[in-house]
Design brief:
Elements (H helix, E strand, L loop, with lengths): L2 E2 L1 E5 L15 H12 L5 E4 L3 H4 L8 H15 L4 E7 L2 E2 L2 E2 L17 H18 L5 E8 L17 H18 L6 E3 L3 H4 L7 H6 L4 E5 L5 H5 L4 H4 L1 H12 L7 E6 L11 H12 L5 E6 L30 H13 L3 E2 L6 E5 L13 H11 L5 E4 L6 H7 L3 E3 L6
Parallel strand pairs: 2-3, 2-11, 3-4, 4-7, 7-8, 9-10, 10-11, 13-14, 13-15
Antiparallel strand pairs: 1-12, 5-6
């Protein structure tokens, strides 16, 4: 199935960051959305702060939900669709968890029956509030909520892969009950793909929900190892897209590049535009791509303290809503693809992934990761296929794969 590509941005308010929900100002939101729409983008991904929306296990604040709907309507007025993340959760190094889950009321987010039921109702409520809005794309369960499940989080909520899978299924079902038929997904950080023993798995990421969401950040060892212009760095997002497709049971399952950005100092600000252009070119060469949602819309204000340094300059726009060079690049690419069908050539050559080697083989520096990068640098456009599917003619045919390579065959 061929689709028109979607281009959007993760909405970080220019005034007050996500704390803007405390002093919600629709005029300020409108100015932000105007600056996003001026880039020619078609959607935003927005982030309610969970503790502000559900401060008590049995209280979902009606006024907060109304403000979310008002934001969605303001986006619609500017031609922007809206995807909503529910459980925030974790954003830019800060955790936002309701008091009823911590300290004296400590509950495991993934296994405590009362906590899970409350999360279900919260996600259902947000989805239902937006279900009649034509510009509502769907819910994401939460932003990289898998980071709460184990190290390096300082206070994790342990969970097994089986429990994580059941939790995801319940959360996605709650979203579907609230707004049937929308693009409801879940999103993990790359430990799901790269970290041995991580309880959230590639199979869950690629099989649960309406699409696979991937988050590409080259500060994970990729840029440190390969440099800002290395093939592996500029193709990291494309690699995750292709890696995710290996785990999907449906060859036509769409993949949403839901987060990708140019993190300083590994990508210095003066080189962010080049990195943006190269990353987009590589990702858009992947069949089955739903779209790209860049991180993020506006810079974090220097008036706000304690963010990691890289977070302050990730915006496509400045705090006074002026486009930066990377924003101009995304605007040009979005304009060039508007109303065009996305039909890149099939990737006929696939690198075979031996799942028994563990997920770390797929991480930066791992043998599979480096072999894929080497093939790409040589001009091959490698897909990825699991070893269990390498002898399945029907699977290979469905994906258009005609040649298989093993890691040991790559120089």
């Amino acid at each position: 199935m061929h689709r028109t590509l979607r281009f959007g941005v993760n909405y970080t308010p220019a005034r007050g960051w996500f704390h803007h929900w405390l002093d919600f100002d629709l005029q300020e939101v409108g100015a932000d959305l105007d600056s996003i729409a001026a880039l020619g983008l078609d959607h935003v991904r927005v982030f309610p702060l969970w503790p502000l929306f559900q401060p008590n296990r049995t209280l979902i604040r009606p006024r907060a939900v109304e403000q979310l709907v008002a934001l969605a309507d303001a986006a619609a007025a500017r031609g922007l669709d809206v995807a909503v993340d529910g459980l925030q959760g974790h954003l830019s190094s800060f955790d936002f968890l309701p008091a009823w889950t911590r300290t004296w009321h400590r509950r495991n987010l993934f296994t405590d029956p009362e906590a899970v039921a409350a999360q279900e109702e919260y996600l259902r409520t947000l989805a239902a509030a937006l279900a009649d809005r034509p510009n509502f794309l769907g819910m994401t369960v939460g932003n990289e909520i898998d980071q709460f499940s184990g190290p390096p989080h300082p206070d994790p909520d342990p969970v097994t892969p089986e429990q994580a899978g059941r939790w995801l299924e319940r959360m996605l079902a709650a979203c579907e009950r609230g707004a049937p038929g929308r693009l409801h997904v879940h999103a993990e950080y790359d430990a799901a793909w790269y970290q041995d023993g991580h309880p959230f798995t590639p199979a869950q990421a690629a099989r649960l929900g309406a699409a696979t969401a991937v988050h590409s950040w080259v500060f994970n060892g990729t840029a440190q190892r390969h440099g800002r212009t290395g093939t592996a760095t500029e193709h990291h997002a494309a690699y995750l897209v292709e890696l995710s497709k290996a785990w999907a049971e449906n060859p036509a399952r769409p993949v949403w590049l839901q987060e990708v950005g140019a993190p300083a100092p590994l990508i210095p600000p003066e080189h962010a535009a080049r990195f943006t252009a190269a990353t987009l070119e590589a990702a858009l060469d992947c069949p089955g791509l739903w779209g790209v949602t860049w991180w993020c819309s506006h810079d974090v204000s220097r008036e706000l303290a304690d963010f990691p340094e890289l977070e302050y300059g990730l915006g496509l726009l400045t705090n006074d809503r002026r486009p930066k060079p990377a924003g101009a690049v995304l605007a040009r690419v979005a304009a060039a693809w508007r109303d065009r069908e996305h039909r890149p050539p099939v990737r006929g050559t696939a690198l075979v992934l031996d799942e028994s080697r563990g997920r770390s083989a797929c991480a930066p520096g791992g043998p599979f990761f480096e072999a894929w990068a080497s093939l790409t640098a040589e001009g091959t456009r490698p897909a990825v296929v699991l070893s269990r599917h390498a002898e399945d003619p029907a699977h290979l045919s469905a994906r258009g794969i005609t040649q298989l390579l093993r890691v040991k065959e790559v120089d």
